[in-house]
Specification:
The chain is of the alpha/beta class and 253 residues long. It has one domain (3-245): Undecaprenyl pyrophosphate synthetase. The chain contains nine helices and six strands; from the N terminus they run αβααβαβαβαααββα. Helix 5 (122-134) links the parallel strand 3 (110-114) and strand 4. The protein is globular. Substrate binds at residues 34-38, 50, 78-80, 84, 202, 208-210.
Length: 253
């Protein structure tokens, strides 16, 4: 370990010791951005960037465990990403499958896939569903694995599910329109029953949501980190928590 690593380690311990544990976010959403740019910066193939990014997931979840975060949502693949070149997409699917399988095998976290799973290859869907079933009895950090996820797509799916449910009850469109409120839609989101994200972290320096948890993040706090996702360190995570704890949440006021 070099001097720089030692210095960051000591700095991270100081931040951790100073954190107000009464304001730790219950739910943290993470946009794992920058794998491709990391690969380019280091002269690696794109697939290696994705693999390095996948390797970072266990570290992040361990950090979340240590401070008491209850729910983590990891955005691994957007619906827009499904339009990437076939070779890159095929590599990425294998990396995602391996990453999710490893999460389940760790027997520490409860895995819950969120997204338009019908748009994914059959084998990827099977891996995601199997990992969810294998971890359903666990009580650790609840991990939403967002694969083939898009915020607009989620809202459309929620409305569609709501309409189908009420059609099955014989409710007319006019009757539904009279009583429809935000909670009706929230009950049909991929994350139904979960607390909304208190904190959303995006790596790589981009400062936008790109459709991540559009409905759920209405009152979230945002933290944008310059590091590419494979280079994201514990000290970066702790800085995000420190920044979050210093904010006065007004919930839209």
């Amino acid at each position: 370990m070099g001097l720089r690593d030692l210095a960051y380690g000591a700095y991270g311990k100081r931040i951790e010791a100073s954190l107000d544990r009464t304001v730790i976010p219950r739910h943290v959403g993470v946009i794992l951005d920058g794998n491709r740019r990391w690969a380019k910066a280091y002269g690696e193939q794109v697939a290696e960037g994705h693999r390095k990014g996948a390797d970072k997931i266990h570290e992040l979840l361990t950090w979340c465990e240590e401070v008491g975060v209850e729910v983590v949502t990891l955005w691994l693949l957007s619906t827009d990403n499904l339009n990437r070149p076939p070779d890159e997409l095929a590599d990425l699917m294998v990396i995602i499958e391996n990453a999710v399988t490893d999460l389940a095998a760790a027997r520490r976290w409860r895995v819950h896939p969120v997204g338009a799973l019908d748009l994914l290859p059959e084998h990827t869907r099977e891996v995601l569903k199997r990992s969810e079933a294998e971890t359903a009895d666990l009580t650790g950090v609840f991990v939403n694995v967002a694969v083939g996820y898009g915020g607009r797509h989620e809202i459309a799916d929620a409305v569609r599910s709501l309409l189908v449910e009420h059609a099955g009850k014989g409710t007319s469109i006019e009757e539904l329109a009279e009583v429809l409120d935000v909670e009706h839609i929230a009950e049909h989101l991929y994350t139904r029953g979960q607390p909304d994200p208190d904190l959303v972290i995006r790596t790589s320096g981009e400062q936008r949501l790109s459709g991540f948890l559009l409905w759920q993040s209405a009152h979230s706090e945002f933290y944008f980190c310059e590091a590419f996702w494979p280079d994201f360190r514990k000290v970066d995570f702790l800085r995000a928590l420190r920044d979050y704890s210093a904010r006065h949440r007004r919930y839209g006021a």
